[in-house]
Amino acid sequence: GSTYSSKVFRVTFLTLAVSVAVPLLGVTVLLDCPIDPQPISLKEPPLLTGVLEPNTKLRKAERLWENQLVGPESIVNIGDVLFTGTADGKIIKIEDGEIQTIARIGHGPCGGREDEPTCGRPLGMRVGPNNTLFVADAYYGLCEVDPDTGETKPLVSTKTLIEGQKLSFVNDLTVTRDGRKIYFTDSSSKWQRQDYLFLVMEGTDDGRHLLEYDTVTKEVKVLMVGLRFPNGVQLSPAEDFVLVQETTMARIRRFYVSGLMKGGADIFVENMPGLPDNIRLSSSGGYWVAMAVVRPNPGFSLLDFLSEKPWIKRMIFKLLSQETVMKFVPKYSLVVELSETGSYKRSFHDPNGVTVPYVSEAHEHNGHLYLGSFRSPFIGRLDLQHV
After folding, report:
1. Per-residue pLDDT for 297 more than 70?
2. Band of the pLDDT at 207, cuts 50, 70, 90?
3. Which keywords, in A-to-Z order, does the entry hold (predicted)?
């Protein structure tokens, strides 16, 4: 009797499975997909061995001003005063432990993802030569903020046509020591910051990625196009080249802005162990790179698995929201230090993002790494003497 009942069970189960799967498939075919993903070929991720060997060093970071600010993406300092921009559109000053809002580029209401375009989202931030703040706002463009009065002066608006196109997702900036030139990234000409996950998953190379603004002539030039999600930027200490993080491709590009190679470009670091977000100078003459997502090897990298399977990406985004998909992204935090030539010097890990999840930037000041995070309600601080 048992073979008969198991047969009945199998038939019933299959009938049920088919009756569920067929309509689901039908619905999936009919549903619109918000993205048109392109296949991307990534190399197998580098092995996490040697200086990249997993550790828990990032867990030694302390959380500062917890629940007093939200999503401090980028951090700068003027002396011991810190400045950051937050997810609710504010430019914040932290002096003697006191938090003060000094400016707001957009206007309220602020809070949800859908408010971002009017509220504004300050991302990259830098200090100019006469201690003014230069800020890249994802929706409003480049502006200059007086750190004392909070007075805000727009420099490059996203409404301005640059070579026939508006800026859509202004992300990061780096400034020459004399304050004359600002190099900045526009991550996409199709997607805005609120849809950054669409940008990563679509894998398109539609942004005009590296631009140069001359603060004297007020001219904007497009220097590089055709990168997949250009993100953080950093001038070299000698100011002869700019490094651009190409997030979706897990690599760093180099564009020469002076010297014999001027106008040329090459790859500075290829096939990184994660998707690079911001890049900043380290005191040793190298660079700190914060990884938005890690590509574990050994292990399973969802990103690598999906990279050449656009059809699966289509299915996912037909059925799930960006917020839901984000829940499947492991909260592995990783910061690496590169030498001036792009080799790995050391790495700090927090394998489950226990202390500081989603590190977007590592800013070195006074023997500490200040850790920005585009989603966390605090700033992390790691004492470099004790890791």
Report:
1. yes
2. low
3. Glycoprotein, Membrane, Transmembrane, Transmembrane helix
The pTM of this model reads: 0.91
Q: Is 193 helix (H, G, I), strand (E, B) or coil?
A: helix
DSSP 8-state class, residue 250: T
- The two structure tokens encoding residue 127: 């200090």
The answer to whether residue 296 is domain-embedded is: yes
**Helix, strand or coil for residue 345?**
strand
Peptide bond connecting 122 to the previous residue in cis, omega within 30 degrees of 0: no
In a domain, 36, yes or no: no
CB-CB neighbours of 370 under 10 Å: 24
Please say if the pLDDT value at position 137 is more than 90.
Answer: yes
Q: How far apart are the first and last CA of the chain?
A: 66
How much is the CA Rg of the chain, to the nearest whole Å?
A: 22
* pLDDT (tens digit per residue) in 353-373: 999 999 999 999 999 999 999
- Asked, for residue 330, whether it belongs to a domain, the answer is yes
Tell whether the torsion through CA atoms of 248, 312, 116 and 291 is positive or negative.
negative
Half-sphere exposure of 224 (CA within 13 A, CB side): 33
Longest dimension (CA), the chain: 89
- Domain of residue 154, residue span: 1-26+44-383
**If we measure between CA atoms, which residue out of 6, 155, 147, 35 comes closest to residue 81?**
147
Tell me, rounded to whole angstroms, the distance of Cα 128 from its chain centroid: 22
Surface-to-core class of residue 284, CB atoms within 10 Å of its CB (0-12 exposed, 13-18 middle, 19+ buried): middle
Three-state secondary structure call for residue 30: helix
CA distance 43 to 46: 8
Query: How far is CA 279 from each of CA 182, 226, 252, 346, rounded to the nearest angstrom?
Result: 15, 20, 10, 15
Assess if residue 35 is contained within a domain: no
CB-based contacts of 349, cutoff 8 Å, min separation 6: 54, 55, 56, 57, 58, 332, 333, 334
Q: Name the domain count of the chain.
A: 1
- What's the pLDDT at 5? 75
Q: 56: domain CATH number?
A: 2.120.10.30
Going by pLDDT thresholds of 50, 70 and 90, the confidence category of residue 113 is: confident
Q: Are 332 and 82 in contact (CB under 8 A)?
A: no
Task: Provide the pLDDT for residue 189.
Answer: 83
> What does the block give as tokens for 312?
């699966």
